[in-house]
Amino acid sequence: MICEKTTCAASYVSIRNxxxxxxxxxTWHKSAWFNNIPEWQRHMIIVHVQFTIVELYKQWVADGKxxxxxxxxxxxxxxxxxxxxxxxxQALQ
Length: 93
Known about the structure:
This protein is mainly alpha-helical.
């Protein structure tokens, strides 16, 4: 329920952004491939992944959580992992 509130409720945007910022500092900025791409690409990747994850979750909630969470995670992984591993970015260079 708390995750649903912080992700879906507009009144929790500040808290959500703080949480996301902490995750970024602990993960993205420790990645060698991420730190070796231009800054504008880093910004676009972060926005893309954050938006995708949050919106997938919000849609799952809006749909009444009818789909098993495991299936949602599997689809999310297929959509997001190429960006997280850098394979999509390396293909662009």
